Amino acid sequence: MKDVIIVGAGGFGREALYLLKQVTAYYNKPWKVKGFIDDNMDALNNVRCDYKVIGTIRDWEVSSDEVFVMGISSPKVKEQVANILKGRGARFLTLVHPMALISEYVQMGEGCIVGGRSVVGDCAVVGDFVNLAGCMVGQDAKIGDYSTVTGFANVTTAQIGRRVFVGSHAVVLNGRKVGDDAFVCAGSIVFSNVKSGVKVIGNPAKRMDF
């Protein structure tokens, strides 16, 4: 039996815990939740939760008996934390909710979190540490490492770079490319390619400097 540690005790970390419980029960996985690690040891103060913060990320010594769940949503922070822990030998689970629909021939990397009612189309490629939170990913789409696609967003047959954040109800249309470190605001409709590091908003999505 492996001890499972959730990295990050914020709101998304608690959502990851809930998903972990569901996956463990549904698939009868031999996992035992040990708790959270977070550099804010008070992250769960005044929060109802049946597990505790058991240590900090910066000081945690990885054991061969442990596996980890990435409970962080911010793309850049995910990458930083994953690199720290993997540099110490950490291995991360990919969790897929039993009510997610994953088509044939999908490639999915390490450390992904796929929430309930997410749909991933045929032959899509989902990189490492990607969060899919109740969204749609079209066939042949590509989602780069550390990206986060939030609830009700729709990434059609498009290419999403690394460390991209796609807000709720946003749509990235067929054939479009979103560069690394871009931010697509909630409700935006992406008709044109988005350059790296750019934030876009609106319908049609346009660059905003804020």
What's this, in brief?
The chain has 210 residues and is α/β, with parallel strands linked by helices. 14% of the residues lie in helices and 29% in strands. It starts with a strand and ends with a strand.
Blueprint (SSEs and pairs):
Elements (H helix, E strand, L loop, with lengths): L1 E6 L3 H17 L3 E7 L15 E3 L10 E5 L4 H12 L8 E2 L4 E2 L4 E2 L4 E2 L4 E2 L4 E2 L4 E2 L3 E2 L4 E2 L4 E2 L4 E2 L3 E2 L4 E2 L4 E2 L4 E2 L4 E2 L4 E2 L8 E3 L4 E2 L3
Parallel strand pairs: 1-2, 1-4, 2-3, 5-8, 6-9, 7-10, 8-11, 9-12, 10-13, 11-14, 12-15, 13-16, 14-17, 15-18, 16-19, 17-20, 18-21, 20-22
Antiparallel strand pairs: 22-23
Strand content: 25-35%
Secondary-structure element string:
EHEEEHEEEEEEEEEEEEEEEEEEE
General shape: globular
Note the total helix count: 2
Question: What is the straight-line distance between the termini?
Answer: 48 Å
Largest sheet: 8 strands, mixed
Structure classification: alpha/beta
CATH-assigned homologous superfamily of the largest domain = Hexapeptide repeat proteins
Gyration radius from CA atoms, angstroms:
17 Å
pLDDT averaged residue by residue: 97
Biggest sheet, spatial arrangement of strands: 5-8-11-14-17-20-22-23
The CATH class of the largest domain, by name, is Mainly Beta
**Name given to the CATH architecture of the largest domain:** 3 Solenoid
Helix content: 10-25%
Query: How many structural units, i.e. domains?
Result: 2
Give structural notes.
The protein is of the alpha/beta class and 210 residues long. The protein has two domains: 2-93, 3-Layer(aba) Sandwich (Rossmann fold), CATH 3.40.50.20; 95-198, UDP N-Acetylglucosamine Acyltransferase, domain 1 (3 Solenoid), CATH 2.160.10. Helices cover 14% and strands 29% of the residues.
